[in-house]
Amino acid sequence: MAIPPNAEGFKAVAQSETSITLQWNKVNNNTSFVLQFNGTETFISAPDGDGPVNHTVSSLTAGANYLFTLYSVLNNIRSSGISITAATAERPSSCADTGCPSGTECITRNGAVQCLDPCDSYTVLNDTWRSINNNDRTALHCDRYIAWNGWYRFFLGQSSAQIPGRCIEEHRCGTDAPLWIVGTHPNQFNEIVTRTVCVSGGGTCCYVSSHTIQIKLCYGYYVYKLQQPFTCDLAYCAEPQGFSVFAQNENSISLQWFEVNTTSFVLQYNGTETNISAADGDGTVFYTVSSLTAGTKYTFTLFSVSGDVRSSGEQLTAVTAPLNAEGLTKLRQDETSITLQWNKINNDTSFVLQFYGRETFISAPDGDGPVTHTVSSLSAGNGYTFTLFSVFENVKSRGVSITAVTVPRNPFIYIPTYQDETSITLWLYGLNNYFSHFVLQFNGTETFISASYEYVLVAHTVSSLTAGTRYMFTLFSVFGNLRSSGVSIVAATAPKNTDSFRQSEQNETSITLQWNRVNNDTSFVLQFNGTETFISSSGGDGPVTHTVSSLTAGARYIFTLFSVFENVRSRGFSIVAATVPPNAHNFRPSELDETSITLQWNKVNYYINFVLQFNGTETFISAPYGDGPVYHTVSSLTARTRYTFTLFSVSENVRSSGVNITAVTGPKIKGSDRNCYVEGSLQPGVWENHGRDRKTQVLRTVFVRSL
């Protein structure tokens, strides 16, 4: 299916401290829209009717810049998207500190400080005594003690008036020393100029320069930001607005003048004359000259006509607004600057670049190539709206705007705090006023990671990885369609545990462990008794062996073995192993008769068991309680028979080397001869018998003679 076209005319048409109203042209009745900003998306149905689409985004922060991206959507297919940057209005209480956009002023209204247009927020001054024709000195006025605040508009009667831009004689305007301005009034709509105020006195036109004031041209009238003069008696003069320009565009100039008892007028320019009827009564006349050429200077001469008599004429030079520059585009950008480019108009036309309430004058360039200009000292990852005006004779064009963004700063990517055999968890951090989301790049893939909060700390887990493998991750901040330069780290997954971790040999003071190697890049850490031993990975294919020495005989140890790759450990695998226990001491028979032998030995410790081996059998004997010797009776034996007993100490299934003794059961005794004994020769295996309650004695083998 075809990709739908982007909507045209996407722009911000209104904003407040907490909302921005966006507008764009609909595509058709079947195409809906998705508006994306701050990591959220809003679906907007295809509108009815033919007018533009309006959508208000609310709950925003005052004085904040936002990047909006609008997609056309048809059959679930999105357009490529178009982006603009728009800002909410500053909070009124802060405009005195932060300044106001061009053409507005920080004005107190109803107790609130706001950025307002002086053309809409002014105080009327309609004192008739301010007229330049007033030379009455019976009541002198002074503006020294008026608390001037904000902007003012002059009236004489019902007609707009202005401060004279020429020398006024002393003792006029209801004061002793009249105030007038040096220089012309602004001639471009919304233009604000600063002019010096002169004091007529001491027999001269400008006895002293008192101070400066600001003047703004509104639609058909001027407003003034007045200041206190330095002494009395000084007062501002007023006169009817003269022959002047109050507006112009690319192909027309609007003129105004004040009529008094005039029947008609003749306007002369470019060798032509135009008759203009006078209005009824006195007042301001407005007349627009059209079909003019953009960026061109014209000389107009106005004649008042009364009957058949013309006045001497009043002459005015004015210019049409120049054409907008074409080809305004963003050439390149980095974190702190944006370079713009546009086509020059001619050698007489300069430019003014406006953004964030600031204006930069750019002279008309030499040569025929395009104009380039770099705006620096910008904030990284921020959107800017630039408006470019062509300027001819101080008159600006309508202006053309472009939105561009700086490259966002790199975020921070932290060394992973957790990884296992198949995943790595990374910590990503950035400031969201510098970017709108992250892109994580590794192994030729890219992952979009949303960043919807002002301060972003995101834990992101990359899964389905290979154990014991080194990966390089590169993280980008993204703002609009721009990426930061990227920051990279290397991280590894945990290696697998080794196979066949086991005890291979042991003696009374050492244990030899053995396991299969993982690969030539994987080392090991052996942990036991609170200590760790690093074991490097050596070449070869055979198993790894490691002997732990200086151990205690018959002791139980827990060994944990970790595989290590790039300083990352495996989960670890543990085994229990023991050293060979010591043999029991004083192993001997303590009693015997015809069918049994009682054996005795000293216990080793509380957890050492024993195995008694004789006649091809083994008997397990648990570690006894108490501190005395161990006794064990072997019964069901044969009289007059020699037996060999082997005793092993046992710990964790590990046996000692064993100790042997030989003992012989006694002969059978028949009837009354039971007490008749014949001492035979001493047999091998004579031992000392420490009986339970007997003294030590030598026991010899005694044969009982059968009757």
UniProtKB/TrEMBL annotation:
It holds the Pfam family D8C_UMOD. Keywords: Disulfide bond, Repeat, Signal. The keyword tRNA-binding does not apply. InterPro entries: D8C_UMOD/GP2/OIT3-like, ECM_Regulatory_Proteins, FN3_dom, FN3_sf, Ig-like_fold. It comes from the Eukaryota. The keyword Coiled coil does not apply. Residues 239-324 form the Fibronectin type-III domain. PANTHER family: RECEPTOR-TYPE TYROSINE-PROTEIN PHOSPHATASE ETA-LIKE, TENASCIN. This is Fibronectin type-III domain-containing protein.
